[in-house]
Amino acid sequence: MPNDRDIASLRRRLLERRRRLVESHRNTNRDIEQLQDAPKDPEFEESAQLALAEYTLERLTDSQRREAIQIDAALGRMDAGEYGVCEDCGGEISLERLRALPFATRCTDCAQEIEKEQGRGVAYVPGTM
């Protein structure tokens, strides 16, 4: 189980990653606005350029939004004293896993079981494996 110093270090990493996500989101929005305002390539339809820009922004923001939600949830678990506990089996999530994936919600064994079941097209129900 992570000790207080480990949790403080992981909290700093999560907060820094969240800050970078917000900054990246702002930069992406600015870049898309510049692309929309830029002279259009006559060989490539203006609407196609705008559609591509909007699609790119949408994909980036979806990914960024999901990661920010995961970070916020991890910070909430830290505040509640539940950080590092597997949501499926209630066991400990190893410090090595948390260092690699600070917002992990499952221990390695449960995460692997889910991946294995999803690979076989079987719905995973926590506590049934």
Question: What would you note in describing this structure?
Answer:
The chain is 67% helix and 0% strand. The chain is mainly α. It has one domain: Four Helix Bundle (Hemerythrin (Met), subunit A), CATH 1.20.120.910. The longest helix has 35 residues, at 46-80. It is elongated, with a radius of gyration of 20 Å. The two termini are 24 Å apart. The relative contact order is 0.12.
Could you name the key traits of this structure?
129 residues, elongated
Write the layout of secondary structure elements.
Layout lengths: L3 H34 L8 H35 L14 H6 L7 H12 L10
CATH topology (fold) name: Four Helix Bundle (Hemerythrin (Met), subunit A)
Q: Give the fraction of residues assigned to helices.
A: 55-70%
Strands, total number: 0
Task: Round the Cα radius of gyration to an integer and report it.
Answer: 20 Å
Number of domains: 1
Architecture (CATH level 2) name: Up-down Bundle
| Number of distinct helices | 4
Low-confidence runs:
none
Q: Look at the structure and name the CATH superfamily.
A: DksA, coiled-coil domain
Task: Give the helices and strands as they follow along the chain.
Answer: HHHH
Shape: elongated
What is the CATH top level name? Answer: Mainly Alpha
How far apart are the first and last residues' alpha carbons, in Å? 24 Å
Largest sheet: none
Q: What structural class should be given to the helix and strand makeup?
A: mainly alpha
Quaternary structure state of the chains depicted: single chain
